[in-house]
Design a protein that fits this description.
By secondary structure, this protein is an alpha+beta fold. 41% of the residues lie in helices and 19% in strands. It has a single domain, classed as Nucleoside diphosphate kinase-like domain (Alpha-Beta Plaits, 2-Layer Sandwich).
Length: 150
């Protein structure tokens, strides 16, 4: 099933110059980037995205970190995009993330684990709405993928 998921590169990824590398992995996998923008999330946006973690010890530092600088947000689309991207980013704790995954290749620290991605269809819908307006999300198909990949 074609799904849309929210992916954002956290400030540590943007500040380390890893945007191109990570966008490239998403493109090479064959997924489509339906929307993309660089922004500094507001506290309100970050709190909504991480609502489920409210009350946990890492919640406040997480909100602080993700609102501290530029974030590259994307709506990524494709068959089973949610699971595909979750597998590409690897386990939450980089200590457990396999080499070859984004976190397994670029992160050492769970608090600076480079990337966020939605974990379910319901959360994807919710999270996309927090960062994107409807008219910022494009509908298009890449001819190569339509012909050779899907
Ligand atoms: P996810 O990003 O893989 O979906 P979540 O459990 O949803 O992981 O946690 C959201 C973010 O909160 C993580 O990406 C990580 O940066 C941070 N986090 C999660 N668990 C811990 C922890 O035990 N200590 C510190 N930070 C954590
Ligand atoms: Mg999560």
């Amino acid at each position: 099933m074609t799904e849309r998921t929210l992916v954002f590169l956290k400030p540590e990824a943007v500040l380390r110059g890893l945007m191109g590398e990570i966008i490239s992995r998403i493109e090479r996998r064959g997924l489509t980037i339906a929307a993309m923008k660089l922004l500094q999330p507001t506290r309100k946006q970050a709190e909504k995205i991480y609502e489920v973690h409210k009350g946990k010890t890492f919640y406040e530092p997480l909100i602080e970190r993700v609102t501290s600088g530029p974030v590259l947000a994307m709506v990524v689309e494709g068959p089973n995009a949610i699971s595909i991207i979750r597998n590409m980013i690897g386990k939450t704790n980089p200590l457990e993330a396999q080499p070859g995954t984004i976190r397994g290749d670029f992160a050492l620290n769970v608090q600076k684990n480079i990337v966020h991605a939605s974990d379910s269809l319901e959360n994807a819908r919710k999270e996309i709405e927090i960062l994107f307006k409807h008219n910022e999300i494009l509908n298009y198909r890449k001819p190569t993928e339509a012909q050779y990949l899907l």
